[in-house]
């Protein structure tokens, strides 16, 4: 079984989750078994993953696992389904607060919260706050979107959480954590208890230890002498110290979704990306390392000389149907148009892109730029301020348009000619890959990792030196002045996108899975099962 | 069916429980269906009951009932052979016969307390966090299964409790929160009881419901042995008869029991007041107390039924008066109201005559403070070699004490009956006590089966003991004993109880 390890999945996600979903579908289409492992408790996780077309049995949440709730038929509980153990209750709906107040003889029995309409229009119960007969709030039950009581917070008399308990579907406690004051008097999680079906109990310090227990159980459950379990650490911090320490052997994969260094312009000397510091220091404990691009693979090999095999596997996949669509010629797109789709954040340096455009404006008066993405207000709105400064400097007020986030990226990409990028660093850049698959021509800084590989300089766009927006401006002028070159490069974009076809990416994965299988016998040979005879006989 | 309502069958019991246990055994012998019914949680109740000669079908405990475990048989649950500890990752480190630590990577994560009176059986497991706080405790039933988990508030007070059925499914939840700023149980909730949750504010409300459920299964007569349960039983909605059995005097000054100046005990007032109509009558162990009560509550049925029964025609064993040792036996609660300090002073006086006299104190102390006080007094009075604190005793050990004693004593101010008096008589052992109502005054005959001494007269008390010890013939006539125990003969038992139906 192949496992992809992450923390959680929400309504909005980052590139790692998008890459995982694409990979999941690739594995599914190629009939390779897999499960997406999530560490965090999240009562809406199945809802959002189902919405992304991931099926329940493709999801392996740690809490679900302990609760034996991986596959649960959804039951939409209404307030009337909650049994308070009392009769003669009054239910007052407070739709503005998404909750009911439940009373008996004017004394509060419970507040019953329900999911908002984005989840369910049926006032499906999301949480129940219980009060005892003396008016104390003593527990809060949280419900999964699938309709079962998933976690209970038990309160202290002075209204703090003392214990969190996760129950199985029969109401048996299976996992607990406690809150106590530390030496400085601050409440924190101070222990976890795992209660097994056979009655055995494990007490551990923190959630990492719980994850370790969980991964061991998963590895045991899916253990096969035919082929190894493959654990791909998409978020290394979930389990990096557990590599390669699971009781039974397995195949461990470190997945570099981002640059391994803080300053990707200095791949040989820069401080390490904090997320990858521990994994790289322990890199030889892994069986394989995945980089998203060939350039990153070379950099990693050169600097760290790892003994683990390093595979380049694209994190983006262009779906087959995209290749079947008719190509849209440049003449049918908005003339002299540039598109960028990304979070409008300081590290994206959109001020540089606007400046390049400003330089080009002298020659291409009707040049335009459309930006789609969330506006990031960090650093006192620095991103927006830099854009505004460049707009003012080059008088581009009517030519730069900032739009919000869009879900229909594909349709937009068909309407523009050039895709621009001037960011500090990238892990891959899924949006740019999609843009090329829609025939856009790239204009980008030489940025590690992704843009300088997605765009082959002079073939499907131009790659200029990092920070040289003037050069970028010149390239824009050249492209918009030479319609034939623009069209030729657009054709190349469509062609080069085949590097990321389902077939190409699956072949990359296949080579990793083959490596896992080829080395399995060797790993098995060194492994011994623990003693399990003669340990439980009871003396008379 | 008769239901004998009590708080508990404890590890250490008082006369109230001994009376109920004795009654239960006699009912069974007489083919009358009955059960002791208890309210308190007691994970050892099956072991404690067995120690006191009861079978599993002689009692039903409320928690056992709701846990569905009344019929569960004992199985071994030895720590070293238990699945509870994953021995590939945790070490069990024995500390002594009573406890072991569970260690993980060198840190103590739990402590296992071995069940009392067993070798290595799990009693309680206390779990710790990484700061060393107790977080929760698993309480094991003496029959070998996990009975409940107690979760603690961060300050160490009890937080909430979860009780399980035999399969580990939670069946009851008890919440401990503030009542006027102090932590008390604030809710008892039955989970999925016949498909429903049921919420109660107090343990007594739950107990009332429990009794109703028992009566729904099988109607019967309720005999409540505990004044503390008067209200809970009164609230039981039923047509079945309810009686209150009083095992003590009814007035604060027993001498005013028949006087209009007598002050009825606070905890009994509801019985004779607002809950009177809920009860069909009150049972007391002596005719004297019956007539006193009847005088004041003429429209309330007051019955006299023996509190404790024995074979009224044969001795259990012959007293062993031939031994040279001089033994005084006190058997009962070691509480302040039983005036153990008086017994020490009396023993000191006897010691002047018999240097080697021994006072055997059999029973359990009411508190650590009282125990310390008595022990200090023993030291101060230089009675270390003359007083033996025997602890709580049952069975052969207890029989032997009665048999070997020259005299059994009591220095309390009042007794509804006094079981040790009757038991002493069944061994033909004299009983010396203050001349107090109701039991001693009615059944002790001077010079025949013991002596009655005016309250507080230590010299007289000691003189009576010395006399018995010196004179072979004193209090040595069978008749004096048989006449007394005949009043408690179990051959009359069924007849007596036929009154209350």
TrEMBL record, chain A:
Entry keyword Secreted: no
Keyword annotations of the record: Glycosyltransferase, Transferase
Entry's Gene Ontology molecular function annotations: glycosyltransferase activity
Record domain Glycosyl transferase family: where: 331-494
Matching InterPro entries: Glyco_trans_1
Domain of life: Bacteria
Transmembrane segment boundaries: none
SUPFAM superfamilies: UDP-Glycosyltransferase/glycogen phosphorylase
Name of the protein in its database record: Lipopolysaccharide biosynthesis protein
Naturally occurring in which organism (per UniProt): Apilactobacillus ozensis DSM 23829 = JCM 17196
UniProtKB/TrEMBL annotation, chain B:
GO MF term set: glycosyltransferase activity
Superkingdom of origin organism: Bacteria
Keywords per UniProt: Transferase
InterPro entries reported in the protein's UniProt record: Glyco_trans_1 (IPR001296), Glycosyltransferase_grp1 (IPR050194)
One Pfam short name: Glycos_transf_1
Record bears the keyword Transferase: yes
Name of this chain's protein: Polyglycerol-phosphate alpha-glucosyltransferase
């Amino acid at each position: 079984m192949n496992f992809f390890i992450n923390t959680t999945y929400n309504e909005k996600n980052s590139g790692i989750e998008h890459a995982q979903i694409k990979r999941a579908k690739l594995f599914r289409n190629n009939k390779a078994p897999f499960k997406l492992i999530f560490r965090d408790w999240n009562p809406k996780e199945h809802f959002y993953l189902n919405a992304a077309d991931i099926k329940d049995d493709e999801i392996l949440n740690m809490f679900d696992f302990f609760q034996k709730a991986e596959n649960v038929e959804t039951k939409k509980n209404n307030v009337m389904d909650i049994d308070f153990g009392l009769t003669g209750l009054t239910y007052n709906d407070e739709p503005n607060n998404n909750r009911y107040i439940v009373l008996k003889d004017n004394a509060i029995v419970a507040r019953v919260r329900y999911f908002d309409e984005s989840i369910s229009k049926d006032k499906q119960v999301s949480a129940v706050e219980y009060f005892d007969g003396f008016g104390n709030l003593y527990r809060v039950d949280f419900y999964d979107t699938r309709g079962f009581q998933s976690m209970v917070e038990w309160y202290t008399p002075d209204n703090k959480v003392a214990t969190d308990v996760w129950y199985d579907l029969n109401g048996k406690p299976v996992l607990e954590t406690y809150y106590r004051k530390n030496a400085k008097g601050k409440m924190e999680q101070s222990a976890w208890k795992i209660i097994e079906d056979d009655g055995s109990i494990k007490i551990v310090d923190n959630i990492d230890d719980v994850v370790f227990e969980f991964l061991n159980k998963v590895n045991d459950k899916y253990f096969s002498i035919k082929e190894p379990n493959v654990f791909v650490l998409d978020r290394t911090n979930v389990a990096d110290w557990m590599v390669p320490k699971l009781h039974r052997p397995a195949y461990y994969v470190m997945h570099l979704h981002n640059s391994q260094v803080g300053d990707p312009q200095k791949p040989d000397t820069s401080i390490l990306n904090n997320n990858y510091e521990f994994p790289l220091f322990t890199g030889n404990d892994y069986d394989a390392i995945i980089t998203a691009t060939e350039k990153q693979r070379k950099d990693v090999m050169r600097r760290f000389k790892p003994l683990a095999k390093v595979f380049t596997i694209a994190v983006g996949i262009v779906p087959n149907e995209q290749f079947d669509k008719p190509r849209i010629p440049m003449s049918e797109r908005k003339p002299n148009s540039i598109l960028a789709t990304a979070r409008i954040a300081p590290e994206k340096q959109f001020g540089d892109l606007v400046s390049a455009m400003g330089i080009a404006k002298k020659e291409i008066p009707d040049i335009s730029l459309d930006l789609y993405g969330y506006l990031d207000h960090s650093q006192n709105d620095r991103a927006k301020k830099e854009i505004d400064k460049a707009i003012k400097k080059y008088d581009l007020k009517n030519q730069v348009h900032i739009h919000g986030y869009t879900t229909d990226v594909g349709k937009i990409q068909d309407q523009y000619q050039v895709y621009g990028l001037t960011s500090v660093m990238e892990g891959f850049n899924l949006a740019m890959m999609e843009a090329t698959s829609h025939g856009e021509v790239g204009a980008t800084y030489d940025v590690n990792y992704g843009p300088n590989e997605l765009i082959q300089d002079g073939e499907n766009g131009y790659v200029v030196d990092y920070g040289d927006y003037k050069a970028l401006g010149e390239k824009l002028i050249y492209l918009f002045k030479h319609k034939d070159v623009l069209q030729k490069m657009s054709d190349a974009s469509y062609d080069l996108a085949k590097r990321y076809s389902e077939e190409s990416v699956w072949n990359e994965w296949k080579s990793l899975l083959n490596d896992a299988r080829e080395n399995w016998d060797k790993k098995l040979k060194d492994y011994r099962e623990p003693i399990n005879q003669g340990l439980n006989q009871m003396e008379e | 069916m008769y239901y004998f309502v009590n708080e508990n069958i404890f590890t250490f019991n008082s006369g109230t429980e001994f009376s109920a246990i004795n009654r239960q055994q006699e009912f069974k012998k007489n083919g009358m269906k009955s059960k002791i019914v208890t309210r308190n949680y007691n994970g050892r109740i099956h072991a404690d009951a067995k120690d006191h000669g009861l079978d599993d079908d002689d009692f039903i405990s409320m928690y056992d009932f709701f846990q569905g475990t009344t019929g569960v048989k004992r199985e071994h649950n030895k720590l070293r052979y238990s699945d509870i500890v994953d021995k590939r990752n945790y070490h069990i480190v024995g500390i002594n016969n009573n406890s072991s630590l569970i260690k993980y990577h060198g840190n103590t994560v739990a402590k296992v307390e071995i069940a009392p009176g067993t070798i290595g059986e799990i009693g309680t497991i206390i779990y710790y966090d990484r700061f060393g706080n107790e977080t929760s405790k698993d309480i094991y039933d003496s029959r070998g299964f996990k009975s409940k988990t107690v979760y603690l508030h961060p300050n160490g007070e009890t937080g909430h409790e979860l009780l399980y059925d035999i399969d580990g499914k939670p069946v009851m939840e008890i919440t401990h929160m503030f009542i006027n700023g102090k932590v008390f149980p604030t809710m008892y909730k039955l989970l999925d009881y016949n498909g429903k949750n049921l919420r109660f504010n107090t343990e007594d409300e739950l107990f009332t419901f429990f009794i109703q459920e028992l009566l729904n299964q099988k109607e019967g007569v309720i005999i409540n042995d505990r004044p503390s349960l008067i209200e809970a039983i009164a609230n039981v909605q039923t047509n079945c008869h309810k009686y209150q059995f009083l095992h003590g005097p009814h007035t604060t000054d027993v001498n005013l029991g028949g006087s209009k100046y007598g002050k009825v005990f606070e905890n009994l007032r509801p019985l004779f007041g607002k809950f009177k109509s809920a009860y069909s009558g009150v049972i007391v162990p002596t005719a004297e107390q019956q007539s006193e009560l009847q005088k004041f509550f003429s429209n309330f049925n007051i019955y006299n039924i023996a509190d404790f029964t024995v074979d009224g025609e044969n001795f259990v064993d012959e007293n062993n008066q031939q031994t040279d040792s001089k033994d005084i036996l006190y058997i009962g609660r070691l509480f302040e109201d039983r005036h153990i300090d008086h017994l020490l002073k009396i023993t000191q006086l006897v010691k002047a005559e018999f240097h080697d006299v021994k006072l055997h104190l059999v029973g359990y102390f009411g508190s650590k403070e009282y125990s310390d006080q008595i022990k200090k007094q023993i030291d101060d009075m230089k009675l270390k070699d003359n007083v033996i604190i025997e602890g709580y005793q049952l069975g052969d050990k207890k029989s032997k004490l009665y048999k070997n004693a020259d005299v059994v004593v009591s220095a309390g101010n009042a007794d509804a009956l006094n079981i040790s008096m009757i038991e002493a008589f069944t061994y033909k052992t004299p009983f010396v006590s203050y001349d107090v109502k109701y039991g001693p005054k009615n059944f002790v005959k001077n010079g025949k089966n013991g002596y009655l001494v005016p309250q507080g007269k230590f010299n007289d008390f000691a003189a009576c003991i010395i006399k018995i010890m010196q004179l072979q013939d004193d209090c040595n006539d069978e008749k004096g004993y048989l006449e007394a125990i005949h009043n408690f003969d179990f051959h009359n038992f069924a007849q007596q109880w036929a009154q209350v139906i």
